Amino acid sequence: MTRLFKNKKLIIIAIILLVAIIGGICTIMFLPNKKDNKNSNVSNVEEKDNNSEVNKEDEQVPEIKQEDIEKNEDEETAKTDSKNKNTATSKNNNSSSSNKTTSKKTNTTKDESTNKYDNAVSYDIVYEEEDRKPYKYGIEQFTKITYMIYKFADGTTEKVESDRETNYDVTTFNATANDMKAEAQSVINSNQSIYNEVFSLINNLRTNADMEPLTLDSNLTLAATIRAIEMMYAVSFDHTRPTKKPYYTVLDELNIAHDSVVVENIEMQYSNAQNLVNSMQPTTIEYKNVTTEKLKKIGIGMFKKNNEIYWVQILTK
Question: Sheet containing 308-316: which strands, arranged edge to edge?
Fold first, then answer.
């Protein structure tokens, strides 16, 4: 009986040991799987996070369509062409500016071929004349023509008329006082009231200076008017006449007696008698001439042409 009990006790111990051994073996066997599952779970989380980032990026980046790519390529091509065109235009303009021989502006006639001239690499301006003929008092009239000579990149040139105007060669002026006498008399008749006003205002200057008034002389007035006419036609504002003679020789040509004292005032562009005499201030030579006490006679001349006015006063004893 005792022996049987002991055997039963041993059997229980053996069973417990066996269970422990089996449990240890199972633990060893299943631990790697658990670790693998844990690693697998971590990997899945990382993969999930990565997939989430990829999905997030996918949401931010729009889908690029083929037609959008082609449109962008066309736009870039257009921008490149535009840039090249602007660069070429700037280069041509710089070349044109450096090759121009003159900067004078000319109103070129615009026609259907204007664009062709815009493409010229340079241009020159030349002047020619035609239809030269006698005008008046030895002066010659002619037509002055302005031409643009355009030069193109292929080496060709083209001559285009841009302006045409009537001009006068005054260097050939050769009139005498007697040649201008008829026109001067007509001018005097037209200007008589103006001459009288100038005469009155000048005498006011003398009166204010306690001097005797001047006498208006018709012969001196003829001479003064001729001087205004010849200066206007010859474009010569000078005490020397256009024929290179002294101013007082006009009296000799008209057979007007005079002594050695002959004084001449010349002025231009005063619009009326008042403005003219107002310019004769005490510090000016014109004032001193009209207020010279020994001078007693005066002739007054004025000639207006093409919006220009010449004034003359001749004084003698």
Answer: 215-216, 297-305, 308-316, 262-268
CB pairs under 8 A, 24+ apart, for 265-268?
265/289, 265/290, 265/311, 265/312, 265/313, 265/315, 266/227, 266/231, 266/237, 266/238, 266/239, 266/310, 266/311, 266/312, 267/310, 267/311, 267/312, 268/237, 268/308, 268/309, 268/310, 268/311
Q: What is the pLDDT of residues 241-296, one digit of tens each?
A: 999 999 999 999 999 999 999 999 999 999 999 999 999 999 999 999 999 999 99
Could you read off the pLDDT of 31-66 as tens digits, one per residue?
544 444 444 443 443 444 444 443 444 444 445 455
Owner of token pair 């008017």: 225
Which of 175, 317, 312 has its CA nearest to residue 245? 175
Beta-carbon count within 10 A of 165 CB: 9
Give strand pairing partners of 312.
266, 301
Contact between 282 and 201 (Cβ < 8 Å): no
Q: How far apart are CA 138 and CA 121, in angstroms?
A: 44
Rounded to two decimals, the pTM is 0.61
Q: Are 99 and 122 in contact (CB under 8 A)?
A: yes
Per-residue tokens: 170: 């005054």
3-state secondary structure of 116: helix
Q: Are 204 and 194 in contact, with CB atoms under 8 Å apart? A: no
Please return the burial class of 228, using the count of CB atoms within 10 Å of its CB with bins 0-12, 13-18 and 19+: buried
